[in-house]
Amino acid sequence: MSSKAQKMELNDGHSIPVLGFGTFVTEEHLKKKSMESTKIAIDVGFRHIDCSHFYQNEEELGQAIRSKIEDGTVKREDIFYTSKLWSTCHRPELVRPSLESSLRKLKLDYVDLYLIHFPVSLKPGDSLLPQDEHGNLILDTVDLCATWEAMEKCKDAGLAKSIGVSNFNRRLLEMILKKPGLRYKPVCNQVECHPYLNQSKLLDYCKMNDIILVAYGALGTQRYKNCTNEDTPVLLEDPVLCAMAKKYKRTPALIALRYQLQRGIVVLAKSFNEEHIRENMQVFDFELASDHMKILDGLDRNLRYFPADIFKAHPNFPFCDEY
């Protein structure tokens, strides 16, 4: 079954493809690779592309998307493109200019989804991670409800079809949902989610409030320097996951992706390897039995590959609460 047929409706009436292509890069030399990989992803059937200002490769992704439109593979409306507002632009007056800057790089008229990338606010400026002379992050104090109002205006202006959040916990979601005069609920909350961190309580809360959970890091992690816990176990080497992969004659990666889809989660798969990109599309070709889903639920160990400890001093840091 093609991914094009697999969508979930958002609470604002738009719909999101359930399988997305992740494009996070940490090094300059990988930007071109992310462009080539995105072209391959579109060729094999991916229609949901996930990026962010923070990744610093939106220009390359815009080229990839436009080249696939120009060669007739897709039309603009076939592509669901997500961008994200970075933490240095939380002040309400910076929200729209930040989105417009992304659109200029992409050479697109709108994004399908715009997210607040991380709830911790940082000092505005050119540096993505502003630091003082001691190497500490320079934090900012911004009312996220005011940031959200500026996001709502971007939706009104047609610059973003839908708006949502990323890395929010229940407390922060409630702050937005209970905001006086709320006009648009977040359509989704994009969070780290995989069998070692299955986010079951947050998932239940989001479902209750008609907010879709989007999973990043669904295959564990590639152990990015300075981002991740490098000494954590490798998810795709988990013996239970590997045994299940053998049973279904699939890869552990496909089992991990399928697990999320069957929980009603939109899942992002990132790879710069053509064979893996093609293989990830096979997630629609099989189904996990309910008893196997329960076994996978049992792998949860509340393990974060992306603990984001550098943001811990901020009152909006999301990962100290239970969920």
Tell me the span between the first and last alpha carbons: 34 Å
- In total, the number of domains comes to 1
Summarize the main sheet.
Answer: 8 strands, parallel, barrel
> How are helices and strands ordered from N to C?
EEEHEHEHEHEHEHEHHEHH
CATH class equals Alpha Beta
Overall mean pLDDT stands at 94
The CATH superfamily label reads: NADP-dependent oxidoreductase domain
Number of helices: 10
Counting DSSP E segments of at least 2 residues, the number of strands comes to: 10
* Beta content: 5-15%
Shape: globular
Please state the CA-atom Rg, rounded to the nearest Å: 19 Å
Proportion in helices: 25-40%
For the record, the CATH architecture stands as Alpha-Beta Barrel
Oligomer: single chain
Can you tell me the CATH topology?
TIM Barrel
Strand line-up of the largest beta sheet: 3-4-5-6-7-8-9-10
**Contiguous uncertain segments of 5+ residues:** none
Briefly note the structural class of the backbone: alpha/beta
Keywords: NADP, Oxidoreductase
Organism: Microtus ochrogaster (Prairie vole)
Family: Belongs to the aldo/keto reductase family.
Domain NADP-dependent oxidoreductase: 19-300
